[in-house]
Amino acid sequence: MPALDAISGDAVFTWHGVTPRLDPTVDAFAVTKETFRRQLDAIEKRFDIVPLTTIAKGRGTGCNGRRLLAALTLDDALRCQAEHAIPLIRDRQLPFTICVPTDAMSAGLPLWSLLLRYCVSTTAPKILNLGCMQVNLAVSAECRRVLIGPVLSLVGNLSGSERQPVLDQIFSQCRDVLPAALQHEAFQPMNWDELDQVRGPGCDIASHSCAHGSLLREDEISLMRETRISKRIIEARTGIPCSVFCFPYGDYDAESLAAARDAGYRWLLTTCGTTVDAFGGDIVPRIDACTLVG
Ligand SMILES: [Zn+2]
Fold it and tell me: What is the CA radius of gyration of the chain?
């Protein structure tokens, strides 16, 4: 876990949920509004905040005694970001980038990964049938928390076409908590009108794919959809060019990189906790703010 004070290069920070209260059982990557404010204070004190593309283009030139640069990104286009994070960013007139998963926004439904975490965390004790394996949820809360990670990676590592039937099967076994998951305030995506309202000077829109699955298992057609079609949808909806692609979960390989480049993106975001100089070319690493200490 990096401490903000120990970061010694230019950096891109990212946030997911920003909420009044935290429930780490169901939302592992969120921070409270108060933490977000404190982190923004600390980042502003130590860094000059610039657009993402300024940092991406300027890599390799060294810091040479100048103040460090930082860029701000918000992943998943969540309504709680519009309510609790973007007003603070706007008050300070800072540039930022929103990474948009187009399916969730268009459907008005939370990301499948958030629903899955909530369901596995909170459904009544039972044997959960995942198709290829069964998971015993009739265990202590602590054991259940340990089980969430493997369930998420098992489902996350399926291709998009394999994943949906498995999700349907899981959600049908979690009907006791699915309505609460669907309405959880931290999970709601913005719709396109809400995105329009929070856009404005200094706000750039990146694609965060269509379906928000890991792109490591997708075939060529799905990769094209996730990269090319999401770009077209964003450009058609916003009327501005979309030149940044943000890999869901930071996952990429040779095929998904090629698909994103073929789709015409100039910058490709991942999340690996390093300063931007750790990578060259068009791949831009980010630091997830929920991992910052201090
Ligand atoms: Zn995401």
Answer: 19
pLDDT band at 22 (very low <50, low <70, confident <90, very high): confident
Residue that is written with structure tokens 């990146």 in the block: 206
Residues forming beta bridges with residue 32, ordered by sequence position: 19
How many separate domains does the chain show?
2
Distance 131 CA to ligand 1 centre (A): 25
Give per-residue pLDDT as tens, 82-101.
999 999 999 999 999 999 99
Report residues near ion ligand 1: CB below 5 Å.
Answer: 75-76
Q: What gap in Å lies between CA 136 and CA 182, rounded to an integer?
A: 23
Domain boundary among 138, 159, 183: 183
What is the band of 145 on the pLDDT scale with cuts at 50, 70, 90? confident
Mean pLDDT computed over 154-170: 91
Report the separation in Å between the CA atom of 66 and the middle of ligand 1, taken as the mean of its atom positions: 32
Residues in the chain: 294
- Percent of the chain clearing pLDDT 70 (strictly above): 99
How many A from CA of 173 to the centre of ligand 1? Answer: 25
Domain with 264, as residue range(s), is 4-108+188-291
Whether residues 149 and 233 fall in one domain: no
Does residue 201 sit in the same domain as residue 103?
A: yes
Ligand 1 centroid distance, CA of 201 (Å): 23
Both 223 and 270 in one domain: the answer is yes
C-alpha 257/C-alpha 251 separation (Å) is 10
Residue after which a domain boundary falls, among 165, 183, 201: 183
Same domain, 93 and 200: yes
Cα 243 to ligand 1 centroid, rounded to whole Å: 17
The answer to whether the beta carbons of residues 78 and 16 sit under 8 Å apart is yes
